[in-house]
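Database export, one record per block. Field names are fixed; values are copied verbatim from the stored entry.
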Amino acid sequence: MRVACLTFWFYDYTIQMANELARHTEVLLLLPDYRSEEHLENIDPGVKVHIFNYSRHAERFGPSCYPMIRDIVTVIDDFAPDIVHFQVNNPMLCPLIAMLRRYPLVATFHDIEPHPGEDHIMDIGSLLYRLTLFASRVLTDRIFVHGNALKEVLVENYRVPGRKVHVIPIGEHEVTPFTKFEQEGLEPDGPRVLFFGRIHRYKGLDCLIQAEPLITREIPDARIVIAGTGEDFGRYEEMMAGRDAFEVYNYRIPYEEGARLFQRASVVALPYIEASQSGVIPTAYGFKRPVVVTNVGSLPEVVDDGKTGYIVPPRDPAALAGAIVSLLGDPEACRRMGEQGYAKLKTDMAWSTIAKSLLAVYSELAQARGSGKPIAGEGFSGTGSAVDGEQ
């Protein structure tokens, strides 16, 4: 079997997926030249790589993109894949999907819809993103998502046939770039709560800030570490009742510094008010740190409540503080849950586990294509059946 893997942005995820698939089949990996050079050293020698010229098109979408699109299609045609698997994240996919319809197409949706606060109806970027989501739902033969809650959204809200949608774990893609900088023996130097990643309103950082007085009332020397950038941080600064309780690193965190922050954390908090999934959870597990997450999206599906961390309601500072205090006040529980999270990462969420699911779907599609039979569950494209919402 021959699999072409295409992405415009999810470098770590797609590279690690391609590396694992290359253990079992021939793989062509297509990556943009835009900020991808730092990831190239992580590609397995068994993976065939093509870097396409995206830098000059990164800020626009139009006829000038055609040479790049034609290059991608030509390279894929020369490879003659049995499957084309792409990550849904860029409007360039719209013409590519149409031009590659002669192959079975598989898409991974990392987000089903734009996050609240990021979608502006009349903004051209939002319109193109929604068009990409629509085209990917309609014209692909199979869809992978990172949780049952996300599958339900596709089936119930968008009438995608359930048999077309497959659930796979989010995997270890966020972990490896950090853990290669892990320092032996580095541990928390006190009770520390880490909030890590892009800062936007749907991440619920304001709820963690509101929880701080409740946390430090019980654990006076606790520190809340905020690491990441995004929207204007001024509004969060103004909310901080006890500024000395916070450590803020308001910039894009390099992997080496990120590794240090995870190692020094006692607990990793994800107080999101909306989510699909998050790579922060497997990263915390990779450093053997427990998590406290909110019950939104598919976050709870990768947290064993009371075993690898705690699940609390969203927008509830008291519940968030209670779970964090419970862990900070019991270092042995932190250690035990961290170990259990690591074990979960290396079994349920391992790339070897994910690859088995991917290859099973690929084989089904390739066999159907070889026999000339309609692909069951297509629903929207080719010769597939009508949309039926079957699960």
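Remark 1: The radius of gyration is 22 Å.
Remark 2: Confidence is low (pLDDT under 50) at residues 379-391.
End of record.
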